[in-house]
Amino acid sequence: MTVIELPWTTLVDANSLAAVLAEPPPGADAIRVIDARFSLADPRAGRALHAAGHLPGAVHADLNEDLSDLSRIGHGRHPLPDSEAFSATLGRWGIGPQTQVVVYDAADGSMAAARLWWLLRLLGHRRAAVLDGGFAAWQAQGLPVTDRAAAPSALAPYPGRFDMQQVAGSEEIANRLKHAPGWLVDARAPERFGGEVEPLDPVAGHVPGAVNRPFALNVQDGRMRPADELRAELQAVIGAHQPTQVVLMCGSGVTACHLALAMEHAGLAGARIYADSWSGWVADRTRPVACSG
Asked: Is the sign of the CA dihedral 253, 109, 234, 244 positive or negative?
């Protein structure tokens, strides 16, 4: 019999999660599964998909409503949620300091499973992992799916507040523009980074001095690539910078979290995230913009 060790802190495969859900190890703490499926094209689609079928016991996390605070103007398309509100949400989901959390989205974790993983890190909660390959990998293994709504026992709000030392702000980004390349890594697709197209934000381009590492390079067939491969590639991107000196960004602070997860998986832990990201940077039209070519 395979022994499955908890806690999971970065990734977990579908079969390991299924085994623990079916027969929790003796003395294991509670496990909560969170369905974070979301579509930028149709913000209602995630909840509809969840209602149609989800992992047993999973509750749904909405990127706009639960993992962001859209009332915060000037902080990009997905501003960080209020720390107290997020803690209360975790309590309603039955998540406490000893809970093992597993979060998934449709496939690779970039929309928005890794975002929830990172928000838990901001609270100091390390017992959190992303389901590698997401709902697609679960289905591919023929594992059970249900449309029955979960009703976890609610807890008090999660104790603690966000550690904002892990979050970079626009002022810091502006003050570091002349630093050697590699400290600011943008996870958007190359054509958006280069300013060739911009389907979501009012200004195209990138922060001057940023380097591009598309998050899609972290995965193959919807699953995270091997840690040693990622480490070699990501180390080349950040160069002489230590991971703790690195800031990650994207369009709105969501896929940057996937890059943070990849770095952690690769043994390059400690990078911070510019939560406002590109959409927050260009909210102030006086800030400089660069385009490739």
From this structure: positive
What is the β-pairing status of strands 219-220 and 11-12? unpaired
Residue 12, strand partner residues = 131
CA distance 123 to 113: 16
Catalytically active residues, by annotation: 250
6, two tokens:
């908890």
What are the CA-CA distances from residue 2 to residues 15, 16, 163, 290 (Å)?
A: 11, 9, 37, 52
Q: How far apart are CA 264 and CA 216, in angstroms?
A: 16
Query: Parallel, antiparallel, or unpaired for β 59-60 and 219-220?
Result: unpaired
Phi-psi region of 144 (alpha: psi -120 to 50; beta: other; left: phi over 0): beta
Give the count of beta carbons closer than 10 Å to the beta carbon of residue 267: 13
The predicted-structure confidence for 60-119, as pLDDT tens digits, reads as follows: 999 999 999 999 999 999 999 999 999 999 999 999 999 999 999 999 999 899 999 999
Q: Counting every residue, how long is the chain? A: 293
Q: Per-residue DSSP letters for 33-60?
A: EEE----SS-TTHHHHHHHH-BSTT-EE
The C-alpha torsion from 34 through 40 and 43 to 44, rounded to 10°, is: -80
Residue intervals of the chain classified under CATH 3.40.250.10 are 11-162, 165-281
Q: State the CATH class of domain 11-162.
A: alpha beta
- CATH top class, domain 165-281: alpha beta
pTM exceeds 0.85 for this model: yes
Q: Of 273, 282, 281, 283, which Cα lies nearest the Cα of 253? A: 273
